[in-house]
């Protein structure tokens, strides 16, 4: 969804037409060699002039810590699966946890409150949507694995 910045206020503008995603109408379109999308013009939402706003990418530490959790959990599950024990139980447990991991995997979303605040990008749970990744369900599922797999972090506790 394209956004327009008017100083400290932000508009969103939506159309279902994928070829018509420019949220401002420029005063003139200029020659094609300047064919970056028009950056400045009349906002198609509120009709005031504004600048097209690109929502910043996710911070590197958000990506890194999500990746660290995913990696840790995958290793912990596969370590647990290889331990001797009740093979039927462990097999089903592993299958369930791998499925949970995938259902509650990370998804990048853009959050816009509609009250004019700047839109932001977040890494949330694909299933729980409003919860940041890893969500409580996933942290709860992961927690018992810390007893036989090192380097679990306290922030991953449910
Ligand atoms: Zn506007
Ligand atoms: Zn979730």
UniProtKB/TrEMBL annotation:
It comes from the Bacteria. This is Uncharacterized protein. It comes from Nonomuraea africana. The lineage of its organism: Bacteria, Bacillati, Actinomycetota, Actinomycetes, Streptosporangiales.
């Amino acid at each position: 969804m394209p956004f327009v910045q008017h100083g400290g206020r932000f508009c969103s503008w939506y159309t279902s037409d994928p070829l018509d995603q420019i949220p401002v109408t420029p005063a003139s379109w200029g020659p094609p060699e300047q064919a970056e999308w028009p950056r400045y013009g009349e906002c198609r939402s509120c009709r005031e002039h504004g600048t097209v706003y690109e929502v910043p990418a996710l911070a590197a530490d958000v990506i890194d810590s999500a990746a660290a959790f995913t990696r840790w959990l995958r290793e912990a599950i596969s370590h647990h699966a290889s331990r001797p024990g009740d093979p039927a139980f462990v097999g089903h447990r592993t299958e369930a946890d791998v499925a949970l991991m995938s259902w509650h995997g990370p998804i990048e979303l853009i959050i816009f409150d509609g009250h004019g605040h700047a839109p932001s990008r977040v890494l949330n749970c694909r299933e729980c949507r409003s919860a940041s990744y890893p969500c409580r369900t996933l942290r709860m599922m992961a927690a018992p694995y810390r007893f036989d797999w090192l380097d679990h972090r306290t922030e991953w506790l449910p």
